[in-house]
Amino acid sequence: MVIAEDKEVDIFVASKIGSFKHIKYHTDSTKNNKKCIENLVEIKSLQKDDAITSMVWGNEEQTEILIGKKNQQVQVYDTIQGFTKSYTADFGTGDIVGLGKHKRRLLAALSSGVVQIWSKKENAVVNTGGKLDKMKVCDQDTTLFATGGEENDLKVWRIGEAAPLFSAKNLPHDWLQLRRPVWVSDLTFLSPELLAVCSRHGYVRLYDTRSQRRPVCNVEFQMAATCMAPAFDDRHVLVGFGRGQLQQVDLRRGKPDKAYKGAVGAVSSVVAVGGRVFSTSLDRHLRVHQGDSKELLYKQYMTSKLACVLVQTATTTPLKREDPEVKEEDQVEGTEVKEEDMDDIFENMETIGEKPSLKRNGDTGITETKKMKPSTEGSTVDIEDKEEDPEEAIVKLLRSTEKQKKRMEKKKREKKAKSVFHNA
Asked: Do the strands 184-189 and 194-199 form a parallel or antiparallel pair, or are they unpaired?
């Protein structure tokens, strides 16, 4: 699928503070503005534990979004009706690191290494044997899901079975006979048999579950990989890194193919749709690149650190309101000031330039205001008490200057007389 030049694309982004936004992206850059962005949750109601850690589509029609939060809450968002359901993943400890759906079964994974499968009849719990950083369900076969994390290598599972179908095996020891560390930060299905993983230790590996347990392709980098997604070809993947780089890796030749520039913070999520690359990063920007030419087509500042991005291609979602987005950082709790109150404040403000001197008249209690002016002696003098002739003031000033000059000359003479070199 290629996005037409006059088409609108719906983008959903989630942030690390819990905000959830809908962006109507136009291929015509002149139509993109703040009015094309809307908040789908109330910003003032967000708490510290509302950070969104996982977001995936809940159906093939792309009308349902599964949202996982740091407080172990799983919410179901309908693109037309809004939030419809909510679950609590309290079957273990840790944040939600992966969500998925198979028919009416809901899958949720926690960072402690536990995956639970919800259904009306029963709830099955799968222990993956270590910490988890990512869990994903295969789009082509939703009965399959894969897991991986820190020192917990890639495993492929099937719903309803307790043992994994495939367990990855590490590469042989390096030339120093040291074990290679394992840390799967993200993974993706290229097909039900082909999987690719990226690591915080800087490698990208391709596994074929039909041939061998060890990777069939290994690409090394000198920086930590944070996220990945399938590219436009079945043997190309997009990999985001912690230093802000976004690379397309060719798994046939085993080396990087293209680089998409622009990000400053770590790339947190990436999606390739219709010849374009959509990515979010911790520098609070959403970026859209052209897939073949690597040109930056669109960049939008979203006011918060973005964690996930989804692009809707099967259907379209209309904007619910035309108001521009509200900045999270500018929210202030308190009462709002009305226009009438503002008018009263400006009317009662004191005029700058006059310093009123308050003086009470004995028993009357009436306050009088006197204007003050600076005098040549350094003290303030009331205008009404004394009005001095300007010529006399100038004469006094000259006299004081002459006296000061004479005093300075006298001090110099005394110093010169006491000098050792002068007496010699």
From this structure: antiparallel
Sequence-separated contacts (24+) of 320-325 with Cβ below 8 Å:
320/22, 320/38, 321/38, 322/35, 323/35, 323/38, 324/33, 324/34, 324/35, 324/37, 325/21, 325/34, 325/37, 325/38, 325/39
User: What is the number of other CB atoms lying within 10 angstroms of the CB of residue 131?
Assistant: 18
Closest alpha carbon to 195 in 244, 270, 145? 145
What backbone torsions phi and psi does residue 30 show, to the nearest 5 degrees?
Answer: -75, -15
Identity of the amino acid at 72: Q
Across 40-81, the runs of DSSP E, i.e. the strands, are 52-57, 64-69, 73-78
CA distance 238 to 309: 14
Report the side by side order of strands in the sheet with 236-241. Answer: 225-230, 236-241, 246-250, 255-260
Three-state SS for 269? Answer: strand
In angstroms, the CA 216 to CA 195 distance is 10
CA distance 99 to 101: 7
pLDDT in tens, the chain (424 residues): 566 565 889 999 999 999 999 999 988 777 777 778 999 999 888 888 899 999 999 999 999 999 999 999 999 999 988 999 999 988 889 999 999 999 889 999 999 999 999 887 778 899 999 999 999 999 999 999 999 999 999 999 999 898 999 999 999 999 999 999 999 999 999 999 999 999 999 999 999 999 999 999 999 999 999 999 999 988 899 999 999 999 999 999 999 999 999 999 999 999 999 899 999 999 999 999 999 999 999 999 999 999 999 999 888 888 875 444 444 444 433 334 444 454 555 555 555 554 444 444 444 444 444 444 444 444 444 444 445 577 788 888 888 888 888 898 898 888 888 765 555 4
Distance CA 262, CA 284 (A): 12
Question: Buried b / exposed e across 174-194, counting CB within 10 Å, b at 16+?
Answer: eeeeeeeebbbbbbbbbeebb
Q: Which amino acid is at 335?
A: T
23, 36 Cβ separation under 8 angstroms: yes
Among left, alpha and beta (phi > 0; psi -120 to 50; other), residue 194 is: beta
